[in-house]
Amino acid sequence: MRVKLIKILKPCMALFFLLFTLSPLPICLRACFAQQVVDRMVATVNGGVRTDLITYSDLVWQLALQPNTPLEHPSSDELNRALQILISQRLIIQEAEKIPTIAPTDEEIRTELTDLINRFPGKGPELYQRADSVGLSREHIDEIMRERVEINKYLDFRFRSFVVVTPQEVADYYRQTYVPRFRQRSPGQILPTLDQARAEIEKTLTESKIESETDEFLDASRDRAEVVILSPL
Description:
By secondary structure, this protein is an alpha+beta fold. The chain has helices at 11-20, 56-64, 76-96, 106-118, 123-133, 138-158, 167-185, 194-224; strands spanning 2-5, 28-30, 36-38, 41-46, 51-55, 226-229. The protein is built from eight helices and six strands. The strands form two sheets. It has a four-stranded mixed β-sheet. The protein has a two-stranded antiparallel ribbon with strand order 2-3. The protein starts with a strand and ends with a strand. The relative contact order is 0.16.
């Protein structure tokens, strides 16, 4: 992965880039501590399809949609974690858009939003209060949900359909992992048989393989992509 660090960017160049790149993002966002923070460009991602811009507001919006994540004065580590998530998402989205047949439906977008809302202790009100505090509109939340559905559908298309879990893998996992873990967590309870635990184990192994293959795919995508860090966090 080619990563360039630009420490000094002339104001006129920055303004031109911000106004004419693909994302019509706001110049300023409202921080939850009632101060006005000037938005800035953080990174660009080009996976061979186009160049996507990531701004500071994108990072704050990512944090706002994560339950139990502080929004006031986010640390450099928190912002960098958000940046890495967004870089990965941009790379997957660029690949996903090559396959128009997996475009998300309105129902899928609503389901994704409902799942997100349910992850917050206060449900909808808490999510929207956090979003409002950082200038994240409901329309843009819907767009983020659309992108997440698009990502999930692409990963299912690329990996889930081809994952194979063998009976031997299930038996090995049951003996080596499932049984010891069950006895540790549920002492005194009746141990499920292999057949009774088969569906749960197959699901666990399937998700593990998808995660591993997704990580390999992202590593390869990052090696091919051009990620330019415009502003260190």
